Amino acid sequence: MDFFYILAGATVGFIIGLTGVGGGSLMTPLLVLGFNIQPTIAVGTDLLYAAITKASGVWSHQKLKNIDWSITKNLMLGSIPGSIACIAVIQYLRVPEEIIEHLISLTLGVMLILTAIVILFKDKIAHKYKRKISSRPKRFIIISLGAVLGILVTISSVGAGAIGSAMLLLLYPSLATRTIVGTDIAHAVPLTAIAGLGHLNLGHVDFSLLFSLIAGSIPAIYVGSIIGERLPDKALKYILASILLAIGIKFSISIV
Question: Is residue 120 within 8 Å of residue 238, measured between CB atoms?
């Protein structure tokens, strides 16, 4: 295990524990910009990292009955085929590595900027749309949302968290926030696992890097969650959003 990779895992894990977000949106840019790791390897490794680190969250939320499994199932009906189709296109069309990396950088830049915007305005969205409604969105809409998330997460490893939960917040304004978070995590685990295994099949996973990141992040998430309870949420939110926005702009500019 590389000490600096363990430190990277600990840093991102600490921020996840502190703010509740920042997994894929921070880990992949950190690996690419901070360690000069190929975007394809960074995305593939980060997807498996996300699946493993979020798995315990599903168990915790299920114990608290915070998961709406009907929504999770409909999201998976779109996201899993979307992810598999995305990997299949890359593999069977023999897309050149430089084109894949260009696509990843472009998607990553856009998704980071969107994630930053969502973090900044999520509370306002929740306040505006928090009303009791009896009707639920049509199943087709949720499956379509899942398909879009499946493709975007597979390409960039970003979007399963902040953006996924924001869309659920808009579609299910009467649903409790804890249920939205639990449902989003329950959907993110199989999605990132399938996408990660797809990248593994393409040779885009570094297991030494993966184990180092996990070794650093697991204890750091716990420490961050304890400290996070004593810090002002608004300040943390603006700091994280600013970082993601700056990184997203950097990725977007670098490919022009």
Answer: yes
